[in-house]
Write a structure and sequence with these properties.
Elements (H helix, E strand, L loop, with lengths): L1 H25 L3 H9 L5 H15 L3 H38 L2 H8 L1 H23 L5 H10 L4 H11 L1 H13 L5 H20 L1 H13 L1
Helix pairs in contact: 2-4, 3-4, 4-7, 4-8, 4-9, 6-7, 6-8, 6-11, 9-10
Length: about 220
C-alpha cells in the first residue's frame, strides 16, 4: 500500500514538474519542436517518427507532435509520418505489455484494464477501431490492455492504423494550415478539425452501449 501511495505521489510530482519545466524553461510548442526537428536536415523525418514511436514511454503529448508533423512536413507527409510514428508507438506499447510489463500495468489501471481486456478478447479488431475513434479510454491504456489480452498483434496493428486516421489527419492538417498564405485554409482546417474530432463524440453513447453489450456476451 505504501509503495503504491509513494508511486502515485512520485508520478504526480513528475507530471507537474514536466508541465512547470515546459512552461518556464523548455517552452515546448509545435513551433519549437518543428524548429528543432528541421535542424536535423535530411534525417528529420526519421527523427520525427522515432520521437513519436517512443512517445508512450516519455509522457510527451501526442497532440503537440501531431501538430508539429503538419507544421514541419506539410499536410500530406505530416499525415503519413504521424500515422507511421503513432502506430509504431502503439505497437511498442502493445509488445511491452505482452512481454515484460503486465504486472505493473495491471496494478496501475485495475478495473478499467479488466473491462478492456474482456471486450478486446471477444471482438478485438472492431473494438480497437471504435476505441481509437472515440475518447472512451486513454490511448496508451488501450495498447496495454490489448497487449495483456489474447487479441492478435495483426488485429491490433490494423485496428489502430485504421482507427487513428481521422484524428491524425485533423491534427496534421490543422498544423500545416497555420503556415498557409491565406486565412481561408486555416478556417477550413479548423472546421474540418472540429467535425472530425466532435463527430465521434456525438456517437459516444451508442458506441459505449454497443461495447457494453459485447462485453456481456
Amino acid at each position: 500500500m505504501k509503495k503504491t501511495f509513494f508511486f502515485i505521489i512520485f508520478f504526480v510530482f513528475l507530471v507537474v514538474s514536466l508541465i512547470v519545466l515546459n512552461q518556464t524553461v523548455l517552452d515546448v510548442t509545435p513551433q519549437s519542436v518543428r524548429r528543432w526537428i528541421l535542424t536535423m536536415g535530411a534525417v528529420a523525418p526519421f527523427v520525427y517518427v522515432l520521437l513519436y514511436s517512443i512517445r508512450p514511454f516519455v509522457l510527451f503529448p501526442a497532440s503537440v507532435l501531431s501538430l508539429t508533423g503538419g507544421l514541419a512536413f506539410g499536410p500530406v507527409w505530416g499525415f503519413v509520418l504521424t500515422l507511421i510514428g503513432a502506430t509504431t508507438g502503439a505497437l511498442l506499447a502493445f509488445i511491452t505489455a505482452r512481454k515484460i510489463g503486465a504486472r505493473r500495468i495491471e496494478s496501475r489501471w485495475g478495473r478499467k484494464l479488466s473491462k478492456l481486456q474482456n471486450m478486446l478478447e471477444k471482438n478485438g479488431f472492431l473494438v480497437i477501431i471504435l476505441l481509437r475513434l472515440i475518447p472512451i479510454f486513454h490511448f496508451d491504456l488501450i495498447c496495454y490492455a490489448a497487449g495483456m489480452s489474447k487479441v492478435k498483434g495483426i488485429q491490433f496493428f490494423f485496428g489502430t492504423l485504421i482507427g487513428i486516421v481521422p484524428g491524425t489527419f485533423a491534427y496534421t492538417f490543422l498544423g500545416a494550415s497555420t503556415t498557409a498564405d491565406t486565412s481561408t485554409i486555416l478556417y477550413i482546417a479548423i472546421i474540418l478539425f472540429i467535425i472530425i474530432t466532435v463527430l465521434p463524440v456525438l456517437y459516444k453513447k451508442q458506441i459505449k452501449r454497443y461495447l457494453s453489450v459485447e462485453d456481456q456476451k
